[in-house]
Amino acid sequence: TLWFLGYLWIEEEGSQAPASEAPIVVANHLGPIEPLVIATLTRGMPVSKIENASIPLFGSLAKVFLPIFVDRANPESRDLVKHEIESRANAVADGVFRSPVFLFPEGTVTNGTSIITFKTGAFSPRLPVQPLLVQFPHTPGHIHPSWGIPSPSLGEIFFRLMCEPYNRCRLTWLPKVEPVSPDEMTEWPGPKIFANRVQRIFAEELGTPTTQYSFEDMKLMQEALKFSSRKLALEQGGAAVELKVIQSIISDLDIKDAKACLKRFHSLAKTKDGELTYEEFEEAMGVNEINNLYLTSKECRRMFDLLDDDQSGRLNFREFLVGVSLFRAASPDCSDTFEEVLKFCFRIYDTEGTGKIDYDHATHILRAIKPDGTEEEWKATFNEIDKNDNETLEESEFVAWAMGNGKDVFQHLNFVFSPIVDERQDTTRSSDPLTEPLLDP
Question: Which of 110, 129, 244, 352 has the most CB within a 10 Å radius?
């Protein structure tokens, strides 16, 4: 197969360690060629997504090497595969198998310009691993067989490779790497710390940066490319958000939520350039200067500017996702997240950015939360919140009061932010927040 694709011989530098000394081989993943090359040279047992088993020819070849197939649609598959990797790696170390387990810890293909986040499966056994650098030297005008996003189809890659009289593949074996520090030997986060160190080794040897992008970001990019009218803008990185970084802050966010948010972002960004303008944002929020249940234009503008982290005057998908995910995770039952949302809301109503809210701004919130109250009752509530009697509310005073009135405040925030959080909502909301469905906390 490799001969037909123009790989008449493989350039190798360094040497492979005995399998018993390095039972796991890890490599960077660029496309469909290096799995064939590594399997042929090492006779190793690959870890591969189960969909590859159905690819003509490739699937049949893969089964010869006793692969470990990962079913990403099966929630239980991750633990099963982790156990199987550990079991086989230990068997290799004990001499039961003569060939190593090999896998691509990035979990997906890339174009090779950076090393994305390593998954921990290869590092969970806490056994020595041997890094293998994969490179495809080529000159301009010749095909590079990376299969990232976007890229030619698999059939086009194979066809163009066969049109070349000769294609180059270079493999560089690095010395084996062992977990050495006590932190790396712990059950958790030992595998993650070990994986990060090996990721840095790959990046240093290849002369490329490491990134926090992950397999989940690739799935988001695939979802984004469904919006063909916006293809160019999203190909430039709009849907690549370093999801793992956001998840480290907002743990409830998963890939399903991110895809739903991307769909909502697409529906709101009517200019189709991959970013959300203030006018589109204001229209979605249903700004209303009269009804206290809605944000005023100044408050909406303030909210937009707070979300616009790079101050570009437009919201990209990452900025939108961070804001929406924070609101989605808000719940009076989760005090830490709810407190962060309340601090953000305080800054929205603090339209002048002074760190204080006067009575006029505060009544906008109080009337929305207690629509049946009187002016005297709202004033009394304001004075109750204003602990230092300076006629303004500071952030700490507002947050302390709101935490104590969590249910009422939450219902108001739920109503205010529903247009950008919930794709079922639109700007024709009813005037009663009690008729609106609650956000997913």
Answer: 129
- Evaluate the CA torsion angle 383, 388, 393, 397 in order and state its sign: negative
pLDDT along the chain (441 residues), means of 10: 88 96 96 90 90 77 85 80 94 94 91 89 95 90 77 84 91 96 91 95 93 66 53 47 63 75 81 78 77 76 87 83 76 74 87 87 79 85 90 90 82 78 49 37 33
In the β-sheet with 24-27, what is the strand arrangement from edge to edge?
11-13, 170-173, 129-135, 24-27, 101-103, 45-49, 68-70
The tokens for 76 are: 């239980």
pLDDT, residue 198, reads: 97
Q: Residues 46, 52, 57, 58: is their CA dihedral positive or negative?
A: negative
- For 306-323, letters b (16+ CB in 10 Å) and e give ebbeeeeebbbbbbbbbb
Cα Rg of the chain (Å, integer):
27
pLDDT value of position 220: 61
Task: State the Cα–Cα distance between residues 365 and 161, nearest whole angstrom.
Answer: 64
Give residue 338's pLDDT: 81
**What is the total residue count of the chain?**
441
pTM of the predicted model as reported, rounded to 2 decimal places: 0.65
Q: Helices marked H in 309-435 — which ranges?
A: 317-329, 335-349, 359-369, 375-385, 395-404, 406-421
Residues in CB range of 416: below 8 A, 6 or more apart: 293, 294, 295, 368
Structure token digits, residue 410: 């939450």
Task: Give 50-56 contacts, CB < 8 A, sequence gap 24+.
Answer: 55/154
Residues 202, 114 contacting (CB under 8 angstroms): no
Please give the Cα distance from 61 to 44 (Å, whole number): 13
Cβ contacts of 3 within 8 Å, gap of 6 or more: none
